[in-house]
Amino acid sequence: MSAEHVGEGAPLSGSQLTITADGYTADIATVGASLRTLRHEGRDLVVPFDADEVRPVFRGAVLAPWPNRVVDGRYTFDGAEQELALSEPTRQHALHGLVGWSDFAVEAHEPDRAVLTTTVPAQQGYPHRVVVTVEYRLDAQGLHTTVTGRNTGPSRAPWGTGPHPYLVAGDGSVDDWTLTLPAAEVLEVTPDRLVPTALVPVHDEFDLREPTLIGPRFIDHAFTGFVRDSEGTAVIDLVAGDGHGVRASFGTECGWVQVHTADHVVPEYHRSGLAVEPMTCAPDAFNTGAERGLLVLEPGAAHTAAWTIAAI
């Protein structure tokens, strides 16, 4: 299928791609290569949004060439100081990368699979060119998302990626669901601007290694140090009172996960889903570097990360 772009009369979230398999249905919007809906046997697994709606609170967006924040929008890479536009003005950070509002081209659309691509052009604050390819694929094990960044420019490029789904376990709100998050460490942040500080062992409300009712607790933190199976897969479960739920899993290429209870001043957004965002690097990794997972793409090199969302 030849590449397509949003045209006149298209929904605000872009061209719409539907894929189905084994009781699952997913709708993909080309703006941000966003996961607009995901259902299993008619049950929502993520908080959806309408096709003709400006995507709220980064629901389902692909985050690249960094997830989460670059503090103050400033960092130094290969000896050069860079300054990014502050896309989170209230906290004065550069938030969630550069492709969240890009109209991805459709490279393939099959009954159970869609492939989208865009290019991050060299620009102020990120003077590198990276092609981002996103594959969504459904099977009996759920929705598999794979993101590949390929450096097509002449210089080394810092790189990170991740998704931004808000998971839904069932009826009720975040307060009513039980979370199992097998992570040994949490990245503490300042309360006002969420600037990362110390990486510490999980404690108190952040120790979620056993199934725990979320209740009124507030979380907007990155976790690491996962228990993984023999194949390197980490699993996060979110379960409603009736035993139904949703599972997120990811491999060793994602060493971090951001979890947010979706506290929001807009009532319809408030604690309606749990953000679970597998990430290849920690928040502000453009400043902390390889120690917290920052990847570097050499010219011509590529990196791939993948994660899965499935019904319980």
Automatic annotation (TrEMBL):
InterPro entries: Aldose_1/G6P_1-epimerase (IPR008183), Gal_mutarotase_sf_dom (IPR011013), GH-type_carb-bd (IPR014718), YihR-like (IPR037480)
Gene3D superfamilies tied to this protein: 2.70.98.10
The organism of origin for this protein: Curtobacterium luteum
Molecular-function GO term, any one: carbohydrate binding
GO biological process: galactose catabolic process via UDP-galactose, Leloir pathway; glucose metabolic process
PANTHER family per record: ALDOSE-1-EPIMERASE, GALACTOSE MUTAROTASE
Name of the protein described by the UniProt record: Galactose mutarotase
